UniProtKB/TrEMBL annotation:
Residues 1-24, 67-97 are annotated as: Disordered. GO terms for cellular component: nucleus. Its main location: nucleus. Keywords: Nucleus, Transcription, Transcription regulation. GO terms for molecular function: protein dimerization activity. It comes from Coffea arabica (Arabian coffee). This is Uncharacterized protein LOC113706597 isoform X1. The keyword Transcription regulation applies. Coiled coil: none annotated. The keyword DNA repair does not apply. The lineage of its organism: Eukaryota, Viridiplantae, Streptophyta, Embryophyta, Tracheophyta.
Length: 184
């Protein structure tokens, strides 16, 4: 066998392997470029790597920011819920029995509202309307009669994106709406 033939074949195999690797590299570079926001299918390696690095740093900062926000709101929400619970667990002798009893539980993006009040025309629809005004999306609700004139309303809702809900404010707004409706 001719030694020049073996060298040529070996060189050709190395060249094909290099071309395959180059194509694979270019596909990966294009894919990376396409993942970056506002980036066109660029093949300038340095620019793509710089943009990817900046974008990763931006995402890391965003994650840190969201984690700090989540940590701070979770603590506040737990505190708010406990305040609401302690106000509502007073005995009937401590409060006016005609006032509605309202419990508000907030956990991350979920809200549970439980209301016990006098049954009144349109109170269910007005309650749901008030909940939606508070930047909440109603997931489910149920009502039960309690005695002859009492009504229990339970609402499960999600906090809309970007909205910040305070349990005490929500409870007070619901109380005012019910009092206004039952006085008319």
């Amino acid at each position: 066998m001719d030694p020049s033939y073996a060298t040529g074949a070996s060189k050709m195999l190395k060249d094909r392997k290099r071309q395959r690797e180059e194509k694979r590299y270019n596909r990966q570079l294009r894919a990376l470029s396409n993942l970056l926001p506002g980036s066109k299918a660029e093949l300038d390696e340095v620019l793509v790597v710089e943009n990817a690095t900046k974008y990763i740093k931006h995402l890391e900062e965003r994650v840190d920011s969201l984690e700090r926000r989540l940590d701070s709101t979770t603590g506040e929400e737990d505190e708010q819920s406990s305040v609401v619970l302690s106000e509502d667990t007073k005995s009937d002798s401590d409060s006016d029995s005609s006032l509605p009893q309202i419990l508000v539980y907030i956990s991350l993006r979920d809200v549970i509202i439980s209301i016990q009040c006098k049954n009144h025309k349109n109170i269910i629809w007005e309650t749901i309307s008030e909940v939606e005004k508070q930047q909440l999306s109603v997931i489910s609700f149920n009502t039960m009669s309690f005695g002859r004139a009492e009504l229990v309303i339970n609402i499960l809702a999600k906090i809309k994106e970007g909205a910040l809900i305070n349990a005490n404010d929500l409870r007070n707004d619901m109380r005012l709406m019910i009092l206004k409706l039952t006085k008319d």
